[in-house]
Each structure stands twice: as C-alpha cells, then as structure tokens.
Amino acid sequence: MAVLEIDNLQAKVAEDGGEQILEGVDLDVESGEIHALMGPNGSGKSTLAKVIAGHPAYEVTGGEVRFHIEEDEFEDIEVPADLQTWDLLDLEPNERAALGIFLAFQYPAEIEGVTMVNFLRTALNAKLEEREELFEDEDEEDEAEADEGGDTKEDAAGYDTSPMEGPADEGEVGVAEFQEILQAKMEQLDMDEKFANRYLNAGFSGGEKKQNEVLQAAILEPSVAVLDEIDSGLDIDRLQDVSQGINALRDEQGAGILQITHYQRILDYVEPDHVHVMLDGEIAKSGGAELAETLEDEGYDWVREEVYEAA
Ligand code: ADP
Ligand code: MG
Ligand code: MG
C-alpha cells in the first residue's frame, strides 16, 4: 500500500518571470485506485505530471508532495519505519521512480540500436539498483552510527565491505529470468512477441509507443503510475489493448493510477474510482465516474461557473 499525497502544490515555469501554472493542487492517489484527471487544454494537467516527475522545466513555488510506503512495499526489502514517508520534491527523478512512481516521460523518444527487451531489462535493473541504494545507504549510516563507540575493528570491517560490489549485481535480473518476466507481461497485455526484439521506438506507430509505455509500467511494477494522455491518437483496438494493460496494472499489481486525459472515451474501458477536473492550475471539482460523463455531455463551463459563484 502506497499513497502519493499532493498538498497545495504550486509551480511555475523555471525561468525568470516564468508563468505560474499550478496554483495549489491537492490530490491523494492510493495504490489500487484509479483517478482520472480531466480538464481543458492548458489547465496544467501535464505540468502536474511533470512536476511530480521532477522535470527541470518547472520550479516548485509552494506546497508539498509526499510518498508514503509501507514496511512490506517491496518483496525483497523491508522498509524501516523512518523510511516510510518521503518528501518527493527533495528526490531526483530516478529516485522517485525507484520508490515506485512511474512517469511516462521517462520513456526515451528514440535510442539507436537498443532493442525493447534490452531497454526494459536495463530500466528494471537501474530501478532495482537505485532502490537498493536508497535503502542501503541508510542502513549503512545506521550501522555506522550503531558502531560508534563499539569495537573499532568491526568498524573497519564494516567499511571494507563495499555494498557496491556483490549485492548490486546479485540483485540484477539476468537475461533468462527477464525473458520470462517479459513474456508473462506481454501475454497479459496481448502484445505480439516480436515486439521485444524490435529496436526501441524505431518505426513504432503512435499506438505501439503507447502500448510500450504500458508494458514498461508493467515491468517496473510501480505503486503509483502517472499516465499523461496515453489515450491520445489511439484507434479503438489499440485503445482497448492499452486500457486492458492499465486495468491489469491495477487489478493484478495493485498499482494506483493517475490517468490524465482530455477525453472521456478511455474511461469507458478504464473505469475511474475518482474523477477530478483541473481548471487554471487547480482541482476545481472532484467526483465519481459519473462526473466524467457529465463533462462529456456538458463540457467544462458549468464547473467554471460553479467556481466563480463560490468565489
Ligand atoms: P494541459 O496538459 O492541461 O493541456 P499544460 O500543463 O501543458 O496544460 O500547460 C498549462 C499552461 O502552462 C499552458 O498555458 C502552457 O502553455 C503553459 N506551459 C506549460 N509548460 C510550459 C513551459 N515549459 N514554458 C512555458 N509555458 C508553459
Ligand atoms: Mg492532503
Ligand atoms: Mg497536457
């Protein structure tokens, strides 16, 4: 169980006199929940996704983003009580990913000569290694502190045992093991096996790129995935495949999903538990799945009017 907790988040374009875009966003996404974030073009949806990811184009001007995980969040590492709440804004993008947040923009546009399978295995191992460092560094410090005032020989021995060698490699997912993981995920997503050996993004259609994005999320097994406009430009078949993949992230892996979308259409296939409307850099209204249908029929103007009347 994990919670991404966004509290009064404010952000501007990171340049002198850059436009203020996020005006105080409040939103909690828990693992196992599907949230749809809707809103007109230019309301700040993608900016929110990028700020969560730590994109350097934006500067946070206020508020907080915390990520809460539990002791048993990871199969292989027990999370100590003092490392169960993280201030996300203090972390590098790859550290955020290592804790279990998936953000699609980490997906590279095109890398020459790298096959999907190699890219995905590298991404998974990088995440595992980063995560080990996040938790191991702390372990080491704890040990060092505990050892202070103790036997100095043990200190020396402790420092000599470099965790960078050995354990890092031990934790790596090997080629054969990864093939099995990949195959299972691709079956889950109804993807053609040939996909795996194609070169990253070279000649992938828009729809295939989106499907790869969901595959990447399935491989990295995030606690919370932020998917920005993953439905844009998909034909109906591909939309259904991608939706099936998103549902599997939730149903089979227990991930929380923040699904950013301009159109109601994908929500026919990925039914949200919560729907939020963003207007002018704030969440102006939240509701259940029915809110998306009202928006489809009536647009965003009535929400804007409600906000003006309340002000
Ligand atoms: P949405 O995803 O809801 O369509 P965005 O977050 O992309 O909205 O953009 C919100 C507003 O902020 C828009 O007016 C956009 O032009 C502006 N904006 C976003 N990013 C930048 C940037 N890097 N530089 C300048 N303006 C930006
Ligand atoms: Mg809150
Ligand atoms: Mg956008």
UniProtKB/TrEMBL annotation:
<keyword id="KW-0067">ATP-binding</keyword>
<dbReference type="GO" id="GO:0005524">
    <property type="term" value="F:ATP binding"/>
</dbReference>
<feature type="domain" description="ABC transporter">
    <location>
        <begin position="4"/>
        <end position="305"/>
    </location>
</feature>
<feature type="compositionally biased region" description="Acidic residues">
    <location>
        <begin position="132"/>
        <end position="149"/>
    </location>
</feature>
<feature type="region of interest" description="Disordered">
    <location>
        <begin position="132"/>
        <end position="171"/>
    </location>
</feature>
<dbReference type="InterPro" id="IPR003593">
    <property type="entry name" value="AAA+_ATPase"/>
</dbReference>
<dbReference type="InterPro" id="IPR003439">
    <property type="entry name" value="ABC_transporter-like_ATP-bd"/>
</dbReference>
<dbReference type="Pfam" id="PF00005">
    <property type="entry name" value="ABC_tran"/>
</dbReference>
<keyword id="KW-0547">Nucleotide-binding</keyword>
<dbReference type="InterPro" id="IPR010230">
    <property type="entry name" value="FeS-cluster_ATPase_SufC"/>
</dbReference>
<dbReference type="GO" id="GO:0016887">
    <property type="term" value="F:ATP hydrolysis activity"/>
</dbReference>
<dbReference type="InterPro" id="IPR027417">
    <property type="entry name" value="P-loop_NTPase"/>
</dbReference>
<protein>
    <submittedName>
        <fullName>ABC transporter ATP-binding protein</fullName>
    </submittedName>
</protein>
